[in-house]
């Protein structure tokens, strides 16, 4: 078994260091930083000034009631990369993502988005940077009685004047067209007019992803997006996340409890143990020893569930 204090780091195979796509993107690439001011030329955070690095987390700390959950966590995510975040229940995966998007306030550490540091305060720059990130949850948080299209349009509310949020009737035509393109991207354009609650769980999760696209996020963080889905729907949703990274240059990180799905679709796997990175490897290089290190002492449970 691997020593838990060490990170098993495996370099990516040639050609996978900067995942990039082939084939025409269905939507404009969101990987660029054109609408952000130039990042500082030098940064104390390793990789934060590298334009290919969409998200750089360094030394992230978080405790709840004196119990350490994140213990100086380091994480980097590149544009065009699909990273699977693995680890046993309670190891801090959700907390890490929630700190990045601002749903939790870290006790320490730094978060850089496209090379710019996100402050703990809700200053305008940090809010603007965080809008580049979208979170997709296991619970899809759609308004079930509203149309699929209205739900996707809601992804844009953060950048629209307040009055547009009063009623979907005020959504501008251009927004509806953009939302349709996002729905088309996830293969659900033909369901646009239906109430969201009428769709299956897997389809609703794809609507939630379309909503993230309509937010124009360049970083998509998915927290157990397929835990409530059957194997076929899970395969489709994880495959879609991988495509968004590969074809549109989005930086995508997904918490998964299915190592086989991670192996099949992700570029890289990061495994957390005790609030730190214990494994960081190309997905295809994930070993049994890695899984044992991450899920021990519950290995037998993991074997039963995931094979
Ligand atoms: N708001 C909170 N208040 C108190 N404790 C919390 C809070 N949020 C998370 N925790 C605790 O922090 C620990 C890590 O939780 P987290 O949800 O990040 O784990 P996880 O790795 O995502 O687990 P799972 O795979 O079960 O979703 C858990 O022990 C959890 O109970």
Automatic annotation (TrEMBL):
The annotated region (Disordered) lies at 1-48
Q: What InterPro entries does the record point to?
A: AAA+_ATPase, ABC_transporter-like_ATP-bd, ABC_transporter-like_CS, MetN_ABC_transporter-like, P-loop_NTPase
UniProt entry keywords in alphabetical sequence: ATP-binding, Cell membrane, Membrane, Nucleotide-binding, Translocase, Transport
Any Pfam family from its record, for instance, is: ABC_tran
- List, alphabetically, the Gene3D superfamilies matched: P-loop containing nucleotide triphosphate hydrolases
Source organism, top-level taxon? Bacteria
Domain ABC transporter positions: 55-299
Sections of the chain in a coiled coil:
none
Molecular function GO labels: ATP binding
This chain belongs to the protein called Phosphonate transport system ATP-binding protein
Q: What is the lineage of its organism?
A: Bacteria, Bacillati, Actinomycetota, Actinomycetes, Streptosporangiales
